[in-house]
Structure formats: C-alpha cells, structure tokens
C-alpha cells in the first residue's frame, strides 16, 4: 500500500478547508481585477521573525498568497507585506516595531499596499492595543490560531474599510492541506504538535500558541508521503516538545513510534526533529535513534540552566544530574551524535554559583553548538514577577563568559570528523564563493565544497578536509 492510500476520514477541518478554498477563489478574482487596473503583476512578501514553527507557518501563508495570484518577491517593497512575528524575547518585538516604520514609508509611495501582521506577538493584548492605536496604516492583524484563514481575512481587507483584527484565544481545529510554498524543494518541516503545556516559568509560548495538540499520525504520515512524492528528501518533525507527542489522541502513539513510521515513508532519506524536552525523552526514543539509519544523528536538547535550583524555578522538571545522565545514555547508544542546546543566562535569582553549574555542564557535555540567550522578561509569565532579577551588567558579563566556553568546546567537538568522508545534502550555492556549494551533514554541521547548482537537493559524499570552527571545507569523494 502506498502512503497516498492512507485515506484520512472527513473531519471538521475538511469543511474549514473547503471554506478557505472558496475564499481563495474569491480573492483570485479580486486580485485579477486589481492587476488589470495596475497594469502589472501584484507582489507579496512574507517575513519570518521566529522559530522553525513560525517559518513553517510562513510557508503556508506564502502558499495561500501565491495561490491567490500574488508573485512572491524578496523585497519588502511589495503590494502585500506580512510580518509573521515572534515574541519569545523582547528584542523580537522591538525589531517588528522598528521595521514597521519602514513599511509605512513604502506605503506612502504605494497607497494601495496591504500591510499585515500575524504570529505569536499578535496573541498579546497589549501589542494589538498599541498597533490599533498608533500604527493605523496596518491593514490586517491576526494571531497564531487562525493563520489558515488568511484568504478569508484578506477577502475582508479587500471588501471592507478599516483595519481587520481577528485574534482567537484557542483553537481545537487544525486545518492542513492548504497550499504551501516551501522554502526548499528538497527539505521540509512537518508539524506534529501545536502549542505547549509545559509552562516553563520564563516562557511566553504556552500563552501565545495555546494548549498542546497532536496531529493524528495517519495525517502526518500522509503529508510526509506527499512531500516525498514532491521530491522532499529530508523532513523535520516540528513541535515545542516533540517527546510528548501523542497525548490526547484517540489511540495514543508515542513519538518514537511516529519517528519509526516517518522513516518508512519511501523517498525520505533523512528525518530530523525539534525540539526535545529532556524531561520526556524516553529510552524507546533513544533506541529508535540508535537503530534507524534515517534518523539524523543530531539531538537538540535544551539545557536552559545547569543549576538544579534554577531549573526548579524555571519549572523544567529535571535536575542537572538527570540531564547529564540522559546525555550519557544517549552517547552510549549513539556515540557519534551531535548534541546542541539552548541556554538562558541571568534568570531571576541566578547566582555566580548557579552560573558556574551551567559552565560545568557545558564543559562536561561539549555541545557542537549552543544558542545562548540573555533572560528576557515576558510579562504574564511567572518569572516576570520573581524577585532578584539579575542586573544587566552581571548578566551580560556571564553571557560573554558562557559564549567563549561554548565556542571553545564547539570548535573542538565539531572537528572530530576531520578526514572522514560523509554524505552531505547540498542546500545552496555558497553565498561568498561562486565555485562552492553549501550543505549539511546528517548531524547538521555545515560543509562547503566545490560544486555547481546542479548538486542542489542531492546527497553527495564529501571528504571533510578541514574544520573551521563550526563548518567544514571539503571535496567531493
Ligand atoms: N520549546 C522549546 C523552546 C522554544 S523557545 C524548548 O522547550 O526547548 C526557544 C528558546 O528560547 C528556549 O529554549 C529558551 O532557551 C529561549 N527562551 C524562551 N523564553 C525566553 C526568555 N524569556 N528569555 C530568554 N530566552 C528565552
Ligand atoms: Fe517554552 Fe518550555 Fe514550552 Fe519550550 S517547553 S515552548 S521553553 S514552555
Ligand atoms: Fe517565537 Fe512563537 Fe516560535 S514566540 S519562538 S515564533 S512559537
């Protein structure tokens, strides 16, 4: 049986999908008229501000806009610009406000321009209030739960006066199988869960993305099958905490089971996943990772802090020892695995001793890379009200020390494949040197090597000649 035959029974989302195709058609007609008036093709631009899930949403938004008839362009000087926002840290918000000023400037030269904002930041009431009061040139605001309704909302923009604002607090319907414009022909993200139930005390995501919902496995496998038929070789299963996948389904399925199934889809060569929460990472998953050659030997395992005292305040539900033990177990079964992580510096109440525990874990684990963040106070989260917020200067000073150690360790760790020949999935032409192409090893490390455009999307064996910190220079083997 081929994957396509996995018939998915009709659900409320099917009706919603049909409704959106109706609005896509209506918008198509309106846009065609507008193009006739303008005497040219109308253009769109969708800008991603956030994580992989945000980027996947942007592909869906772009897919709908292109289906309506817009031509997607790189520049923000387009007839429709949509900012898909992120609010995980304050600087993400600041960036959006800053760039809106520039969009307003473009709009002055093109009064018909449509400016839309969506994504996580829009789920915060104070943001929408500010926008509706002080950014009146924005035409459309919607949130994270109704992105699939873009065509319907755009129809309102086309046919009604004033700013259209539509934010939902929750949603139990997920609507898939609408048009998608993938960034890459050969790789794709695949949503497996939406939302998050973990409520780490610093984090805004559960408030702006809602409760955790798992997509049904047959629906996910069906989507992967279609992607493979369309030439996709690498997929990344996406969720805020993929390890808790399956809860609440009629027939609960574990993430490890789903991962095995994904590997069985013909045509799929590499399977990645993001993000793993240490508290839910099972032995069953480690077993699948060790035994299934298509699962990439890369695990992104956010540590956040090395101090058990701080981890408790963060509501992470593991200790420093639990984390180290997990790493030991994983490395025992998957010795070559590349481990990467996220770390927050300056969480409220973090002392020099707590910070030393973080450095100790970095020292002991030797991550291949780590995203390090200065703690950012998000209003509405429990941590925002905690006492002893760390002053900026101390946090910054710790951040710099952490970064130096992370880089030193990563450099050593990444170099361990020097001299080996390994498969590289070629992603693009090198941006600086025309004679090179750039791709990734299965463990996610970047490799540059001589080649031309024809290799893009191919998996090529490359001899890794020299490691330059975080990337390799190689030659085709
Ligand atoms: N679901 C993922 C993370 C999503 S957010 C997980 O649990 O690992 C991505 C990263 O942003 C987090 O891992 C964390 O390190 C960082 N982050 C989240 N909230 C933050 C905050 N308030 N300040 C600084 N960094 C934060
Ligand atoms: Fe945020 Fe924690 Fe959920 Fe990750 S697991 S999204 S850090 S609340
Ligand atoms: Fe940002 Fe939302 Fe992702 S807040 S990190 S875009 S889930």
Question: What proportion strand?
Answer: 15-25%
Largest sheet: 6 strands, parallel
Give the strand tally: 19
Distance between the termini: 37 Å
Strand order of the largest sheet: 2-1-3-4-5-6
- Helicity range: 25-40%
What spatial form do the alpha-carbon principal axes imply?
globular
Which ligands occur here? S-adenosyl-L-homocysteine, iron/sulfur cluster, FE3-S4 cluster
Roughly what is the average pLDDT, rounded to an integer? Answer: 95
Helix tally equals: 13
The stretches of 5 or more residues where confidence is low (pLDDT under 50) are: 1-9
Assembly type? single chain
Rg from alpha-carbon coordinates: 23 Å
SS content category: alpha/beta
What does this protein look like?
The protein is 37% helix and 21% strand. The protein contains 13 helices and 19 strands. The radius of gyration is 23 Å and the shape is globular. The two termini are 37 Å apart. Residues 1-9 have low confidence and may be disordered. Bound molecules: S-adenosyl-L-homocysteine, iron/sulfur cluster and FE3-S4 cluster. The site of FE3-S4 cluster (F3S) has 11 residues, from α2 and α6.
Give the topology.
Blueprint: H1 12-38, E1 43-48, H2 52-68, E2 71-72, E3 80-85, H3 90-109, E4 114-119, H4 125-134, E5 140-142, H5 150-159, E6 164-166, E7 187-191, E8 193-194, H6 205-209, E9 213-214, H7 217-229, E10 234-238, H8 255-263, E11 270-274, H9 283-291, E12 298-300, H10 308-313, H11 320-333, E13 338-345, H12 352-365, E14 369-374, H13 392-414, E15 421-429, E16 436-441, E17 446-450, E18 459-468, E19 471-476
Helix pairs in contact: 1-2, 1-5, 8-9, 12-13
The chain binds S-adenosyl-L-homocysteine, iron/sulfur cluster and FE3-S4 cluster.
Iron/sulfur cluster (SF4) binds next to helix 6.
């Amino acid at each position: 049986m081929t994957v396509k035959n996995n018939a998915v029974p009709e659900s409320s989302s099917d009706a919603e999908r049909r409704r959106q195709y109706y609005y896509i058609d209506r918008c198509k007609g309106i846009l065609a008229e507008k193009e006739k008036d303008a005497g040219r093709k109308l253009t769109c631009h969708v800008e991603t501000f956030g994580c992989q899930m945000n980027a996947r949403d942007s592909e869906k938004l772009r897919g709908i806009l292109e289906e309506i008839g817009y031509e997607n362009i790189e520049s923000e000087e387009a007839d429709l610009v949509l900012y898909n926002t992120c609010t995980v840290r304050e600087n993400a918000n600041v960036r959006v406000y800053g760039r809106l000023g520039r969009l307003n400037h473009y709009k002055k030269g093109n009064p018909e321009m449509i400016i839309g904002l969506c994504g996580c930041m829009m789920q915060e009431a104070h943001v929408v209030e500010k926008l509706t009061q002080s950014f009146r040139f924005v035409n459309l605001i919607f949130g994270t739960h109704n992105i699939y309704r873009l065509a319907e909302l755009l129809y309102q923009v086309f046919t009604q006066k004033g700013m259209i604002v539509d934010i939902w607090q929750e949603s139990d319907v997920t609507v898939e199988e609408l048009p998608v414009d993938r960034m890459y022909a050969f790789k794709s993200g695949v949503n497996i869960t939406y939302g998050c139930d973990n409520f780490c005390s610093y984090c805004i995501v559960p408030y702006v993305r809602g409760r955790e919902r798992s997509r049904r496995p047959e629906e996910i496998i069906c989507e992967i099958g279609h992607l493979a038929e369309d030439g996709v070789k690498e997929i990344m299963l996406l969720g805020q905490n993929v390890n808790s996948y399956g809860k609440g389904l009629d027939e609960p399925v574990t993430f490890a089971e789903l991962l095995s199934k994904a590997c069985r889809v013909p045509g799929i060569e590499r399977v990645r996943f993001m993000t793993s929460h240490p508290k839910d990472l099972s032995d069953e998953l480690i077993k699948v990772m060790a035994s299934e050659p298509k699962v990439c030997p890369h695990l992104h395992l956010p540590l956040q802090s090395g101090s058990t005292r701080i981890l408790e305040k963060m509501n992470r539900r593991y200790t420093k020892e639990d984390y180290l033990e997990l790493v030991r177990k994983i490395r025992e079964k998957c010795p070559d695995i590349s481990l990467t992580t996220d770390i927050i510096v300056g969480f409220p109440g973090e002392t020099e001793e707590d910070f030393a525990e973080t450095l100790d874990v970095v020292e002991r684990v030797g991550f291949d890379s780590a995203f390090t963040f200065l703690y950012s106070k998000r209003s509405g989260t429990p941590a925002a009200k905690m006492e002893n917020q760390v002053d900026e200067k101390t946090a910054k000073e710790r951040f710099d020390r952490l970064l130096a150690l992370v880089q030193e360790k990563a450099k050593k760790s990444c170099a361990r494949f020097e001299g080996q020949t390994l498969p590289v999935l070629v992603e693009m032409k090198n941006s600086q040197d025309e004679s090179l192409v750039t791709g990734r090893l299965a463990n996610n490390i970047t490799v540059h090597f001589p080649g031309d455009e024809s290799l893009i999307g191919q998996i090529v064996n490359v001899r890794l000649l020299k490691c330059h910190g975080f990337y390799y220079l190689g030659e085709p083997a």
